[in-house]
Structures are given as C-alpha cells and as structure tokens.
C-alpha cells in the first residue's frame, strides 16, 4: 500500500446509495488515486424508498429514481457485472466476467436482495413479485395499474405494509398475510404494532395475522390465482407480492476469510471488516445494509441496519477512515433513524426500538393517531417512535444519546403528563419466530457499563 493513503487503488463493490456516497466522500477527502465502483445492476445508483411509495402509486416512473451526485467521483463504473469472490492475499476482487480488480483498499457495500419465495416453481408463476430493485418496482407498478381483482401481500414489515397502503390508495382489494401477531411487530414490538394493525383494518385491508402461506396456486397455465393458508383458508388473487424481508449479499465472500454471514459482514466501529477469527483488517471496509457493527449506546451489540440514513453516514465514515491514518479515524456512532409513510400516517423512529423491554406513550393521542412512543431498556431510553409527530425526534434523540432514564419525566417534552400511567412491555418478539427479518438484528455481549455519546460542539 502506498505511504500516502490519499493515493493508490480503491475498489467499491456495490453501486447503490452507500457505494455512491462513499465514492463522493473519498474525493471530498482528497483521495487522488484510482477509484472503481462495481455494481451488479446495469443502471447507475438509484433511490430505493420511492419504489414502494411513489412508483407503486404511479406518481413517479421507476427509471426516474436515480440518485443525484453531490460531485463527480471520477470513478470507473463497472456496472452490470457481479463480484464473485475476494482474494485477500493477492488483494483482488473477482468478477463474473472472468476479470479481477486489484485494490489497495476495498469497500464492501453490496447491500441486500429480496428474500424469494422458497418454492421456485410457485415463485415463477405469472403474477408473483418481489420488490427490491428498480425493475421490480416498474413491473409491479405496471401490474397494479392494470387493475387486478385482489392483491396478496405476504409479510407485513415496512415494505409489505407500504405495498398494501399503495394498493388501497389505488382502490385495489388487498389481503396481507403475516406470520407474526401484527404488522411491523418485528421492528416496533407487539405493543405499538397493534396501532399498525388498526391502520390496516381501518383502511380496508383484509389482514390475516398469525398465519403462514403454505402454497401459491396457479391455473395450470403458469398464472397465479391464489394461495393456501395454514389455517385452512384460501385466498383468490391475481397478484402476489413476496415481502419476507431481505438477504444480505455476502455469498461472494464465502472463501474470503472475512466474518461474513446471514447478518452481514462484521466490522468495528470504524467500519473495518473483521476476519472470521475476530482479527480486524486494515484494508477492507464495510458500509450500508450489508454491514454489522457495534454501537456503544446499545451495549456494543452488533447491529445490522437497513436504513437510508445509516447507509449514508456509515459510507461517509468508512470513506474517511480509508484515507486517514489511525489517530484521525472516527467511529460510526450516529443514532439510527428511519421512516415510513403508509395509510396516511408518517412513522419515524430514532434509536433501536427492538433494543427494549418496556414502552410508554409519552405524547399525543392514540385515537387521533398522533403520538410518541418511548422505548426503554434496563432503565434508560433507547428509542422513540413518532406517528405524525416527527418534530419531536430531535428531542428524544438527545435523551437517547445521553442515556436519559426511562420512563421519561412527566411532562418533560411538552408539559403534558404521560399518556400511559405506567410502562408497558414492548413485546419485542424473538426474530427467529418471524417470517421476515426485524429492523435490527442484535447479538453479542451485554456489558454492565453504561456509556454516553456526546455530540461534538461546533
């Protein structure tokens, strides 16, 4: 590796949000060496949140979701080619077209893909879709615009719920089948998920919870016609959308010796990848949905996040550290934030709701569907979820960052007493019992020490 970290060869595998923001940041940090970005899809980086919202509603075309560039990263874009392997000894990325790319430093930002229906013949039926890529969204939007008689959505996480919301806004009949007790239960816990279930039903969704789909049925000519459920019932539908969560794209790293598995590629707080033996590397970095990293506010457990904001911030931290010597490297310590728009409400979250044992409704009104739910773990605040009250997120983020006690003091936010007189269990389920992945996957050691993250001044 060259002595000057601003020189040399950097390869980024993954041409989506994290890959693009990392490439831009490298140039902003005065990296002058060669920069190559590899992407499996043939199109330039695009924005994924609009795919399940504006694109499905017909408001925006799928091909119009491209991400704006803050600056030209002056990179060689190798699009439409998949990375198939990594040789960390010779420091080369192997590509599906037979070529290999040498690197001095590597950023892994391969993200996730939609979890497919497990039965390939049923998944191949005309009318069965997943939603992850721009092409997925375009095809599904076209089918929804044709006016199907009924849409079946399998899985009621954020993506499944947003799809159901778009269907109802289009005036389509929709059935949602969810293995858990309620929509969003894997992300928000069972207590707040009851509100999500109410939103579905108030807006006319045929919501079936506590059931699984046992088979997708066709008409004998390759066309989807319905599904069988575990409770013995049948659903007749023209379109089926599989929304069973995501699979992290790590298979190409199987022989690399890195700590890569179903929860992603493990890295330290500076985004440096770990080997399978727990040794931190100094030339391989990770960012975005595929990363699995420790956070001191959540007892150093390894977090896997699939959030837009996390991808941006982590990519910027990784890029900075790739071109900075040890003493100038910085940790990725931002508090996770995510949002979802569905059934006419705006749901936003700060912190990690699944890292909790209790929840209290601190502000707002359940009846009006305007509220703030505050989550706690072992006596400190770890998350807050707002429903049409997003202006309070910054306030609760400050409480999370300073390890403020849970429950929050009466009237601490707006002078009003807590809506719930005492904390309720947050009812976070064991993710192994769900058919879709939770928003956050947590594993690791539970230290007794409580830490406070302090924002820099100025």
From TrEMBL:
FAD/NAD(P)-binding domain span: 9-315
Superkingdom of origin organism: Bacteria
Keyword tags: FAD, Flavoprotein, Oxidoreductase
Gene3D superfamilies: 3.30.390.30, FAD/NAD(P)-binding domain (3.50.50.60)
Reductase C-terminal domain ranges (all copies): 338-412
Entry keyword annotation includes Flavoprotein: yes
Keyword Flavoprotein: yes
Pfam family of the protein (one): Pyr_redox_2
Cofactor(s) the protein requires to work: FAD
PANTHER family (alphabetical): APOPTOSIS-INDUCING FACTOR 1 (PTHR43557), RIESKE DOMAIN-CONTAINING PROTEIN-RELATED (PTHR43557:SF2)
Protein name from the UniProt record: NAD(P)/FAD-dependent oxidoreductase
The organism's taxonomic lineage, starting at the top: Bacteria, Bacillati, Actinomycetota, Actinomycetes, Kitasatosporales
